[in-house]
Specification:
GO terms for molecular function: zinc ion binding. InterPro entries: E3_ubiq-ligase_TRIM/RNF, Quino_amine_DH_bsu, Znf_C3HC4_RING-type, Znf_RING, Znf_RING/FYVE/PHD, Znf_RING_CS. Pfam families: zf-C3HC4. By secondary structure, this protein is an alpha+beta fold. Among the domains are: 79 residues, Herpes Virus-1 (2-Layer Sandwich); 71 residues; 286 residues, Methylamine Dehydrogenase, Chain H (7 Propeller). Helix content is 30%, strand content 26%. The chain contains ten helices and 32 strands. A four-stranded antiparallel beta sheet has the order 9-32-31-30, with no helix packed on it. It has a four-stranded antiparallel beta sheet with strand order 10-11-12-13, with no helix packed on it. The chain has a four-stranded antiparallel beta sheet with strand order 14-15-16-17, with helices on one face. α8 packs antiparallel against α9. The longest helix is centred in the first third of the chain and has 86 residues. The radius of gyration is 43 Å and the shape is elongated.
Length: 705
């Protein structure tokens, strides 16, 4: 039988309710330990060992309070056992005294309390005499015994274990009716088993504890190496900047020297001046009456000198060609030639020194993707092998197009309208007759459409809402900022997935369509998820798990629920990907869903019902200058892909090209859009294209058809 102390919380002295284990391995009720958490200092002092635990946020405290499933199971078993034992007195007292003659029919299943020997003898003597003399009185005694405590009875019979007659008790471990001696022997066996298991547990604890200490030591060494590498990268960057500056000055000086040399080598202006001077004076000489021999000799000497200079100038002009400076730019600046590829290698415990120049930082394809601030997910670079495999796929299966000049003849999509937004429009969504625009911190603007799903007319602003009170401040570090990863809308709620920039797990919040948090509308989401996408046709919430490389979905309710967080307890696997697949974006329409593979620049389109892949589109348009970063599905299953300009030395606004592809096997381009600093994107049910664009710290949303 389970000891009651094992299932009792040390704080509230009641049975555990939602037992949670804190980092020091002590367990308490979740409500009890939450009351001990200091929200101002973000610390928790263990009530048992008084160890101080430091957290970065309340959400981290909730995430690290792990549910103790073992304790929860023990509580359930203990309560079930108590419920069974509570029925024992009524079972025994309801039987007449003569029923002891039929003990074999119930002794194995009915617990019998242990009693003093004196009480057993007295009760047996009184009972037997009353039975022989006055049966009616005996029946009265039996009836009155119902209300008496069960401790007034005992049983002398044969033990089920040793088969020797004696006082029987109920074993607290196996619930069998056995004698005291057998119960003591059974307890000795149990104690031996417990002692043996505890010794095994102690051995395992010592091994894991030693391993954990080594891990902490290694983690400190890793942090030291990381800080050293950060310093090296900073210094190396400064050197590169200085090298570029020196090269710039060198080229400018060379060009300036060439200009001066060219000007000095061809004295055309001096020759012209000398010619014009002689010509004027010769004319004056012809008009003068005073022509002496000396004047004629001087003019002849000057003319002869001018002829010599003309001959020299003629030779220079014949032997030299006009040259101007020309700078030949490389086709593409490879970032690996400047910084290299960042990799994470296994720590060598034998190594006690750190040499930043020994870190293998060679080229990797993903390093060329210099994204703007919307690139907030954790990036794990592919290996060089995967990089070469990716290049081989492109070279063997498709013929790359080096530029997008071939699409200049493709018609551009028409701008229908645009509206102003007071922040950066990261998310643009529609539902019914409403348009929702939100930034990555929860600043929401709600617009009203002319009628349901009618985007052709410019919407009207209804209200502006702050979904969260913890709006970012300037003192918050970039990694500690909490941002909105995903923002979707369906018939019951606005669903927001919020996390820290350097993490993949976070919290799901549920709001009304007016922007108010619903009761119980907060759910801790510990899965490494990204890109939540709503399927309004089926009430399914799709999401990507970048760790397990899976596409999952939640089945959301069709009507309001008092416990909406229960909707996110069970997720269903739909498609499993294999390495080096790197899913970053998904899009859904009525019949199909599409997933963008970042590594291969490929969009995979699947049938939602059969899970079969219908087709694959690999980006071949300007792959040397542009990177496919996002995509969306039209109602006919065709694609809209977003190409971001790649520049490893990018200094200005990001430039983007949107390509609408047809449904043929060649996926021909049938429409284009060009934008600068574009963020949010969606395709409406009527195939209009909505794009959010940043203008400094604010933005606009444009509608194209």
């Amino acid at each position: 039988m389970i000891n009651a102390k094992l299932v009792t919380c040390g704080l509230c002295q009641n049975y555990y309710a939602d037992p949670r284990q804190i980092p020091c391995s002590h367990s308490f009720c979740f409500d009890c330990i939450s009351g001990r958490f200091n929200e101002e200092t973000l610390t928790l002092i263990c009530p048992k060992c008084e160890k101080v635990h430091q957290y970065k946020s309340i959400e981290e405290f909730h995430n690290r309070c792990m549910r103790d499933g073992f304790l929860a199971t023990m509580v359930t078993q203990f309560k079930r056992s108590q419920s069974r034992l509570s029925t024992t007195p009524s079972v025994l007292s309801s039987r007449p005294p003569s029923s002891f003659s039929h003990i074999s029919t119930f002794s194995s299943s009915t617990p019998i309390p242990r009693m003093r020997t004196q009480e057993i003898d007295t009760n047996n003597h009184d009972q037997s005499s009353s039975e022989r003399s006055t049966p009616s009185v005996s029946n009265q005694q039996s009836s009155s015994s119902i209300s008496q405590p069960a401790t007034t009875r005992a049983l002398i019979a044969k033990c089920q274990s040793c088969n020797i007659r004696g006082e029987l008790i109920v074993c607290s471990h196996c619930d069998n009716v056995i004698c005291v001696k057998c119960a003591d022997e059974h307890q000795s066996v149990i104690n031996g088993d417990v002692k043996r298991e505890w010794e095994l547990c102690k051995t395992q604890f010592e091994t894991i504890n030693e391993k954990s200490i080594r891990f902490d030591h290694n983690e400190e060494e890793v942090n030291n190496k990381a800080r050293s590498l950060q310093t090296f990268i900073s210094k190396h960057s400064d050197k590169l900047i200085q090298t570029v500056e020196n090269q710039k000055n060198t080229y400018i000086d060379i060009i300036e020297k060439h200009r001066r040399t060219y000007k000095q080598s061809f004295p055309h202006e001096q020759v012209v001046d000398e010619y014009e001077s002689i010509d004027k004076r010769v004319g004056d000489l012809f008009k003068s009456a005073d022509i002496t021999t000396d004047k004629v000799s001087d003019f002849l000497f000057e003319i002869e000198h001018l002829e010599g200079r003309l001959d020299n100038l003629n030779k220079i002009l014949d032997s030299n060609q006009s040259k101007f400076p020309l700078l030949t730019l490389p086709e593409q600046v490879d970032i690996s030639s400047l910084f290299g590829t960042l990799e994470f290698v296994q720590l060598n415990p034998q190594s006690n020194t750190f040499d930043p120049y020994s870190i293998p930082i060679t080229n990797g394809y993903n390093d060329l993707q210099s994204k703007s601030e919307d690139d907030d997910y954790v990036l794990i670079n592919s290996s060089n092998h995967n990089h070469n495999h990716f290049k081989n796929i492109l070279s063997n299966q498709i013929e790359p197009i080096s530029s997008l000049s071939s699409i200049s003849h493709v018609p551009k999509k028409k701008l229908l309208w645009q509206i102003d937004y007071f922040s950066v429009p990261y998310y643009v969504r529609t539902y019914g007759n409403q348009l929702f625009i939100c930034d990555k911190y929860g600043s929401l603007a709600i617009y009203k459409l002319n009628k349901s799903n009618d985007i052709r007319q410019k919407p009207i602003l209804v209200r502006e809402v702050k979904l969260f009170k913890d709006f970012p401040i300037s003192t918050t570090t970039d990694d500690d900022q909490t941002i909105i990863d995903s923002f979707v809308v369906y018939k019951l709620w606005i669903i927001v997935f919020k996390r820290k920039k350097n993490e993949l797990h976070g919290t799901i919040y549920l709001f009304t369509h007016e922007g108010k948090l619903i009761p119980n509308g907060k759910c801790i989401h510990n899965y490494p998820s990204r890109e939540l996408t709503m399927d309004t046709e089926k009430n399914l919430l799709w999401l990507l798990d970048q760790k397990q490389l899976c596409l999952f979905y939640y089945d959301l309710p069709d009507i309001k629920s008092n416990n909406p967080e229960e909707c996110f307890h069970n997720r269903h696997s739909h498609v499993q990907f294999s390495k080096p697949f790197a899913p970053i974006h998904i899009s859904v329409n009525k019949n199909v869903l599409a997933v963008l593979d970042k590594n291969r620049q490929a969009v995979h389109v699947y049938d939602k019902k059969t899970k079969q892949e219908l087709y694959e589109h690999v980006n071949i348009y300007g792959n040397s200058t542009h990177f496919c970063w996002d995509m969306a599905l039209f109602s006919d299953n065709s694609l809209l892909i977003k190409l971001d300009e790649m520049s490893t030395l990018k200094t200005g606004p990001s430039k983007h090209i949107y390509l609408q592809l047809d449904t043929t096997k060649k996926h021909n381009i049938i429409g284009t859009i060009e934008e600068t600093d574009a963020y949010g994107m969606m395709i409406t049910t009527m195939d209009e294209i909505l794009i959010g664009v940043r203008i400094n710290t604010k933005g606009i949303v444009k509608c194209y058809i």
